[in-house]
Specification:
The structure is a homotetramer. Chain A is an alpha/beta fold. Chain A is built from eight helices and seven strands; from the N terminus they run βαβαβαβαβαβαααβ. In chain A, strands 3-2-1-4-5-6-7 form a seven-stranded parallel beta sheet, with helices on both faces. In chain A, helix 1 (about 15-25) links the parallel strand 1 (about 5-10) and strand 2 (about 30-35). Chain A is globular, with a radius of gyration of 17 Å. The termini of chain A are far apart. At the A-C interface, loops of A face loops of C.
């Protein structure tokens, strides 16, 4: 039976590419995303076409029980979850306080913070029982500092970072590796950045960053580091690391 | 008309003492707390007995509209709010993940993070219009790092810290001074630490820390710094500072 | 006998103004600076003209024994040093690596890091014996993050910040209050920023920031916070705080 | 011609193991250390025995020109340096201020901070010309916070961390990848921890941490992450990451 890698937030960017990377190494990848059944099935088909194994589910993380039920079903029907990639974002673009609604603020927390808490409540007892497990959490610059216009995002991601630290503090010694992966640059991801910018602006940005587009962060390259961290020996675990393109200034430099 | 200092979370510790300090300097202090009408009226009476001016209201911050309505009423009936002291804590003691309920996690966020967001939504437009205002936010070690057993508290306070930074980034140049005051030690506060420990343990701790109890953080002394920060000239504002007793090790040292 | 406040790095900006502030409250202020005997004596005269007490000495901090001998002489001839304001900067302007000489790099360390270490070696035993003392250290953005062109400055100030933390860790419980004061903006200081920019550029900057110049950080206002921190009750000490003008973005926002 | 990996500080712990890892992947590894010619030649022999390529040199980093001349010689005689592993430590054990001499403080800076600066001055122009290069810097908990007894070490490592950030800020966009690798736990390294503790204490610690010793950080496992970081695609570079054993608490948790 293949080990399972569960990706929560599996679009065509980081989530999908990390899922592919794990599938290529012998994991059964379970891809979950909120919408776009077609895009989801395409990801599954892509993995299967290269000899990998995957399943895909639409999952609305905000819905009561959605994550919890999926975890239970996977463990019963597919196999033990060895790796969780928590990749739900909560970026809603820059909005001043007066344009940030209560609803937007709460939704940011539900996706970025509470969703991870619920995921941890569901998987940690199982991982602890098995004495091993990995939780990779995609994070963002806003986890490190709040900018004007990032009221919802920064509060949500800042809470998420502290939650990762508390989970790590409780569970590392029991064999669960929690890693907080700080994405500190623009990702070449059509489903998130692409949608936020619009097709034309997105292509323009890609072109500006050079012919290989590697002035943007390439998700298939980022996936290498996700995979590496998940397979670090337990005598040398990373809890937090940053990732950015060589053309990006670090958040503390601008 | 006196300027108003609104204290949200006004027990016998930091909140009450900061309220007294501002009242002593000519502010009308509005004290809000969730329960204990008698304790609240005692604080008001104490202030009035020394020639100060104060009002007290029970306020359940989690209740819809509670903070917003109070802000509106104060501005209409008492006067412009110049200073807000956001002093609601969300410490529930050390609890491992398995004993931290969804409800506890959400309540932490509502008190520590969402409540501040709602407060800012209510007061910032008014302060911005007047070109000045101060928001002092009491914070805790858990805003800086997550410990085992602090899943709810750390996520809530970490989100709060990032929110303070984003509020500051948007509003400082418009005259609103947001300060994040990190309380990094045990406070000699009967309503919070006292209740958490129980009367006997609390007295024992006080005794251990020496005859003047100043190995614990004394809220009347802390209030001096709250007052100072609120009155810094706008050419020299502090956004973040820590406070601890001389006997406390800083959070990064233990 | 008046308590002594020793200012190392007493130009017309932060150092001089902090010295004046302490003198106005009854301290004998000892002002030390590397050069400009006339400017130094003017500061002393200014203090004396308003009824304060001060002395001034030229002091080349890099010279062997210079700080140590001055401390000894003050303790013997004037009185116990209660407060040290370590205000030596090491900013040499933006220089890429290829233009940063070994000598410049070493000088940065000698002024910003080693000089503080030597000062602490000289005063801490005396303060410890008396069970009290204050060391206020002026710091800069570069203590928090390294920028291109700040190789020397960032290394020097980053080391200084860690030194402040280790001094605090050893000496707080023995009554010595070490505070790291992060200056995160441009100071209206003719002797430092003024000289770096040149007279014309400096005046232009002052004018841009508004008629009261308070878009620049005003040293006489900053001095209020230095004085406040030095007089916090030992149950509520600040180890680190930032200062910037209301028009400045925090370092993490740009 | 093989690419060169230069390890400055190549004992039997991190340095030696990282050197071996790179040699195993086709690099010519140049190992430098201050003393123990025999141990050095053993490392070289070990690498050659498994088909790898290596050279070893005694190098006293504090000596004028030592690093600079070695870099020049390597580039002329062996080949272009693609990777530098700067692995010199400056830990001298816990010493209170009164037992930390000027000399010890300065030596800490020379090894940990100035040595890296000199190395960067020597290699960056060459790497910049070639449009690529990697500088991996081994760091320690003391780069993040100063503890009592760590006056020299914390100042030196804190300065080093800021230097890494300034180097990264200047050189990342020109193809040089600078990574700051925070070692936040005890390493199973006979040449450093072993010598500091003494043979008996060291063995006791190893035994306590379990039969596989993996409660200590195993340098051969850490080397995997060094190698991974050095080979990240330039669209997804890590500047800072931490490493600790699963049994270690993170520095912010204790």
């Amino acid at each position: 039976m293949k080990p399972v890698c569960l990706v929560i937030g599996a679009g065509a960017g980081i989530g999908g590419n990390v899922g592919k990377r794990f599938a290529a190494e012998g994991y059964h990848t379970v891809l979950c995303r909120r919408s776009d059944e077609q895009g989801l099935q395409q990801l599954v088909a892509d993995i299967e076409a290269t000899g990998g194994s995957a399943s895909g589910y639409l999952l609305n993380a905000i819905e009561e029980g959605s994550i919890e039920d999926r975890v239970t079903a996977i463990e019963e029907e597919i196999g033990p979850i060895e790796v969780v990639v928590y990749n739900l974002g909560a970026q809603i673009g820059d909005r001043p306080l007066e344009e940030t609604s209560y609803k937007a603020f709460e939704m940011g927390w539900q996706l970025a913070t509470f969703g991870l808490f619920r995921t941890a409540k569901a998987v940690c007892p199982k991982m602890e029982e098995r004495g091993k497990g990995v939780i990779l959490v995609t994070s963002a610059t806003s986890a490190m500092r709040g900018n004007a216009g990032q009221h919802s995002h920064a509060a949500a991601m800042g809470g998420r970072r502290m939650l990762c630290q508390s989970l790590n503090a409780q569970f590392a010694s029991r064999g669960i590796h929690v890693a907080h992966i700080l994405i500190d640059g623009a990702v070449d991801a059509p489903d998130t950045l692409g949608k936020m910018l619009g097709a034309e602006q997105f292509q323009k940005l890609r072109d500006q960053r050079g012919g290989e587009h590697d002035g943007l962060m390439l998700p298939q390259q980022m996936a290498e580091t996700y995979f590496h961290v998940a397979h670090q020996h337990r005598s040398a675990w990373t809890h937090e690391l940053d990732l950015r393109a060589f053309t990006d200034l670090a958040w503390w430099n601008h």
